[in-house]
Amino acid sequence: MLTWEQLILACEGCQLCELGKLRNNIVIGRGNIKAPVMFIGEGPGEQEDLKGEPFVGAAGQLLDVLLEALAFKPEDYYIANVVKCRPPNNRVPTDSEAENCLPYLRNQVALIRPKIIVCLGSTAARYVISKEIKITQIRGQWHEQKGCWIMPTFHPAALLRDSTKKVLLFKDIKNVKLKMAEIL
Ligand code: URA
Q1: How many Cβ atoms sit within 10 Å of the Cβ of residue 162?
Q2: Which residues does the UniProt record annotate as the domain Uracil-DNA glycosylase-like (predicted)?
Q3: What is the pTM of this model?
């Protein structure tokens, strides 16, 4: 397992896949590295690639509003993605891109040791829970892996396309808040 310093250096020098050649910035994560809750998205978009931080574009603003509405404090969470470089035109990362990048995410999880992981959308849920899942079928249901509670839910960007998902995402994140009160 790498330390944070080693992990950041490894990510910054990473050229394991083609995405490395295209990036402006590597997007490792943001938030409290000792947080009890970790949110995992898919991969950086345009704004994230420009700033080097996850969830700072439109989807990130929606997530921030949601977390604020549910009284999450900044120290409660850390946010990262399955892949750390922006896929062109925000396409879904390929299986080999995701598999190449996953050791970095696993290393982040091992360093943070969150009590709760929230998978934002299908890509995160597939690589964290199981490749067989369908997000519409498993969202909102707790999974437990090695003492860590995992909540799969919709990606905030999905709300920008389909507002009916808003109620469900809100409900799932509210359940995360309840779980925090229960276990922390
Ligand atoms: N969507 C993601 O999945 N991650 C980001 O960092 C931004 C948008």
Answers
A1: 9
A2: 28-174
A3: 0.98
Our mutation pick for probing the ligand 1 site, out of 38, 42, 62, 154, counting the most ligand atoms within 8 A of Cβ, is 42
Per-position DSSP letters for 83-130, written without gaps between them:
-SSPPGGGPPPPHHHHHHHHHHHHHHHHHH--SEEEEESHHHHHHHT-
Give the chain's domains with CATH numbers.
4-179 (3.40.470.10)
Opening angle at CA 151, ends 172 and 145, nearest 5 = 160
- Tens digit of pLDDT for each residue in 153-177? 999 999 988 989 999 999 999 999 9
Backbone phi and psi for residue 155, each to the nearest 5 degrees, phi listed first:
-80, 135
Mean pLDDT of the region 136-165: 95
CA distance 164 to 38: 25
Q: How far is the CA of 117 from the centre of ligand 1 (A)?
A: 16
Q: In the numeric block, which tokens belong to residue 52?
A: 């080097």
